[in-house]
Every structure is written in structure tokens, then in C-alpha cells.
Amino acid sequence: MEKQRSITFNQPCLVGKELVYIADAIKKQHASGDGYYTKACHGFFEEQFSVKKALLTTSCTHALELAAILCDIEPGDEVIVPSFTFTSTVNAFVLRGAIPIFCDVRADTKNIDETLVPQLITRRTKAIVPVHYAGVACEMDSLLQLAKAHGLFLIEDNAQGIFGNYRGQKLGTFGDFGALSFHETKNINCGEGGALFINNPNFVQRAEIIREKGTNRSQFFRGEVDKYGWVDVGSSFLPSDILAAYLWAQLEASTEINNKRKQIWETYYGELRNWAVRLGIGLPFVPEYVEQSYHMFYLVMPDLASRTDFIKHLNKRNIKAVFHYQALHNSPMGLKLGGKPGQCPISEKMSDQLVRLPFYNGLTELELEYICDSIKQFKMRECSTSPKGALAA
């Protein structure tokens, strides 16, 4: 492979009949929300995931905001969230006046540390929001027990974990609600989009109303009421049926998409494992009872300096690698909302040390070989972190 060819970090996956279905959605003269393809997607999720109700939204952010409204989040309520996550996980609840309670993540999976959650629960706690980082499941048994024992909502941010599972059950189906993302960086995409899984049947009717600008319009179209009107708070969370058509093509090809991503992940792991162990660089960890979604492949460098050098090393070879989240508790907004430096040390370490490698279905075998060869040519400067300690992180 020629060195000058640029390898981007991400490219949206196109493998199905996206353009054919988009054209068909336009021809059907129902390009707005809840058209033919939206209903097809809803049916797919409800059948394949055995959820009570699936509703497409314009983004995972909107799915989380819809869940926050359904939970009646009010000013002063507390919501427990991992610090190592994207801002949407927190913003959805802060918009309702909630106070985020930042929890550190586990050193192995980078998921919310379920052993720290009990000490964060107070009389004001309203919900726990686990994030399945990299599509590897959180410890859902423990989190479900905690939520049940304290009467809390459990809302899964499953933006990265579509088709992953925990002990044989699909992610997004454990909590009261599960939020999915179809952003162009995700395994299954439609450019921008999301979905909310409503696993608690008590919320199905109200979810439809809130999603329809606070009206009972969906009931009207089903013939359940003779007219519709404003009956609750709400917003416009519906995506265009054009986007749903794009998504439907992706869902039809989901097995092919996932198989390719698995192949890429396993190539990275197989090629880099010995190199990483030798240098004390951390690799992704997947518990044996978890089936991951193969959303990303990352490395955990020994320190910030080595990560900076590593990214520069790959950039010189026209390979785009990126860091991920900045710990939210330590961000300007997080500090304003009560976060304190040092309260989530693993999250802070991951902010400085974790680096994501290029990962998308269009990567060829030659490109993967070039990336792995380039990585193994990296020479790490002397640092204070020992190889053993770095790997454990």
C-alpha cells in the first residue's frame, strides 16, 4: 500500500439499498415522520429485540431527552452517570434541571463502576444511566438490582452497543428505557438518527404522545380517538421517513455489517496483542459472558505524552487516530455542576491515555496491514508508568 494514501478515522457504511429506498420513500409521498419505512424499522426492533415499543428519533440525544421527560425529571433530581461518556448522556437530564452525579468507570471495560454506585444514591436520586462503552455491556445484573431496590429508573445509553448482549440478552432491553444512535460513526447508521426502546409497558402511550409534540395524534391515526389535541408536554422527535428508509437498508444488511466489523476488530487484536503486552499498552477487555458490538478498537497508552507521540506518529503516516472523551466531571460545565478534579481518577486517566484506531467497514485488508505495521514501528519514550501498570489500566 502506498504510504501517501490517507486513512481516515471513520467513513459511513453503505452496503445495502440505501439510495433505492430513499427514492422509494420520496415516491410514496410521505417523507415526514412515521411513514412506511419508519414503521418497518419499528417492527424490526420490536421483533428482533423483543421490546414493548421502539420509536425512531432524530438522534440518540433526543431519545435520551424523551426518556428524561417520561421519567418526570425535575429540578433538583439527581441522576447517576459515568464521567467517561459523551455530553448527551448528561445534557438530556440537565435540560430538565437535574443534577448529574458523576461516577467513575471500571479500569477494564471503561463502563460505569457498579461497585461505586450505591454510595452515590441519595433520597434525591431519580435514575441511573449506564453507558455500554465500545459496545461492551455494563454489569447489568448489579445495576438492575440497585435500581429495583431503590425505586430508580434505569436508562441504558446504548449508542455504541446495538446487537451486543449481556448474558444472552440484547443491550438496550434491560432498563426501563434504552437509547440507540444511528449517527454516521455508528455500526448501523442513517447519517443522523436514534431510537428509544420502551421496555416498561406503562410508558408506551405517553412516549408516543411526547414524541408527537404532546398530542395524541398516533392514537387518532389508529382510530382509537375521533380527534387529536394537545394532551401533554412534548417536542418534535420524529425523523423523516427518508432517513428511516436509509436506516431500513442498513438493518437489512446488519448481519453483513456486523461480520465485517468483527473481522476488523479481531485483526487489530490479533496483530497488536503481543506488541501491546510488550510495551505495557492496554487493550480492550470483553468479559466472557458479554457479546460485544464491535463498535471500536482502542489502545490505552501509558501516559498523555506517549499518546500524543503515538497520534503524531500515525498522522505522519497518513493514519488518523483520535482520543475520545474528556472526563465530564472535570470539564467547565461539569465543574459548574458540582464535579471536582480527582473524584473520578480512572475517567481522568482514560481522558489522557485512550486512543481510538480507524474503524469502519470500508477498511481493506491492505489498509489494516499498513495500520498495524505502522503501529508496531512506534517507539515509545521513557515514562514513569511501568509496562505492568499501564496494561492493568
Question: Could you please describe the fold and organization of this structure?
Answer:
By secondary structure, the protein is an alpha/beta fold. It folds into 2 domains: 18-252, Aspartate Aminotransferase, domain 2, CATH 3.40.640.10; 254-392, Aspartate Aminotransferase, domain 1. Helices cover 38% and strands 12% of the residues. It is built from 14 helices and 13 strands. Strands 1-9-8-5-4-2-3 form a 7-stranded mixed beta sheet, with helices on both faces. A 3-stranded antiparallel beta sheet has the order 7-6-10, with no helix packed on it. Strands 11-13-12 form a 3-stranded antiparallel beta sheet. Helix 4 links the parallel strand 2 (78-82) and strand 3 (99-103). Helix 1 (18-27) packs antiparallel against helix 8, helix 3 packs parallel to helix 4 (87-94) and helix 9 (254-279) runs parallel beside helix 13 (365-376). Residues 383-393 have low confidence and may be disordered.
**Overall pLDDT score:** 94
Overall 3D shape: globular
- CATH topology term of the largest domain: Aspartate Aminotransferase, domain 2
Rg over alpha carbons: 22 Å
Q: Which sequence of strands runs across the widest sheet? A: 1-9-8-5-4-2-3
State the helical fraction: 25-40%
Counting DSSP E segments of at least 2 residues, the number of strands comes to: 13
Q: Which architecture of the largest domain does the CATH hierarchy give at level 2?
A: 3-Layer(aba) Sandwich
Structural category: alpha/beta
* Strand residue percentage: 5-15%
Largest sheet: 7 strands, mixed
DSSP helical segment count = 14
**CATH class term of the largest domain:** Alpha Beta
Number of domains: 2
